Amino acid sequence: MARRRTRTLTEVELEFMQAVWRAGEATTEDVQAILRRRGRELAGGSVRKVLGILLDKGYVSRRREGRGFVYKARVPKDKAHRSMVADLLKRAFGGSAPLMVATLLDTSAVDEEEIEEIKRLIAERESASGEGEGGQ
């Protein structure tokens, strides 16, 4: 059975995007070198294939430079993160944000300091939404 194409980033595509975001602009060789430093050894053809997928999905643009291409992110990192979270929320949690947050908090990956930061973010959000309603 063929694998379902998705508009969101796969794990490998996200690695490539992180390399492009970090570099600002990158050639195939630049991306290959960044990934090699992170412990991922890939042939040039494999790097070009994934960059082509990212181009098709609209995450990167490219321009010809010499015999190759220079790639640049078309989607900002924060927008890509929001898209991935929205996709996860929809697919894994049926659109239930409370269930998603409860599951996150049940993991050992969230420490007390992070919980305090989450509380601060919620308080900011509540304060901002309260200002918008009462100030009109």
How would you describe what is shown here?
Helix 1 crosses helix 2. It is built from 6 helices and 3 strands, in the order H-E-H-H-E-E-H-H-H. It is 64% helix and 11% strand. The chain has helices at 11-23, 28-37, 44-57, 77-93, 97-106, 112-134; strands spanning 25-27, 60-65, 68-73. The protein has a 3-stranded antiparallel sheet. The chain has 2 domains: 11-73, Arc Repressor Mutant, subunit A (Orthogonal Bundle); 77-134. With 136 residues, the chain is mainly alpha-helical.
List the helices and strands and how they pair.
Elements: H1 11-23, E1 25-27, H2 28-37, H3 44-57, E2 60-65, E3 68-73, H4 77-93, H5 97-106, H6 112-134
Antiparallel strand pairs: 1-3, 2-3
Helix pairs in contact: 1-2, 1-3, 2-3
- The H-and-E topology, N to C, reads as HEHHEEHHH
How many separate domains make up the residues? 2
Query: CATH class of the largest domain, please?
Result: Mainly Alpha
What is the level-2 CATH architecture name of the largest domain? Orthogonal Bundle
Mean pLDDT comes to 89
Helix share, percent = 55-70%
SSE class = mainly alpha
Q: Name the poorly predicted regions.
A: none
Main sheet attributes: strand count, strand direction, barrel closure: 3 strands, antiparallel
CATH topology of the largest domain: Arc Repressor Mutant, subunit A
Shape designation? elongated
- Tally of alpha and pi helices: 6
Features:
136 residues, mainly alpha, Arc Repressor Mutant, subunit A, 2 domains, three-stranded antiparallel β-sheet, 6 helices
Structure summarized in a few sentences:
By secondary structure, this protein is mainly alpha-helical.
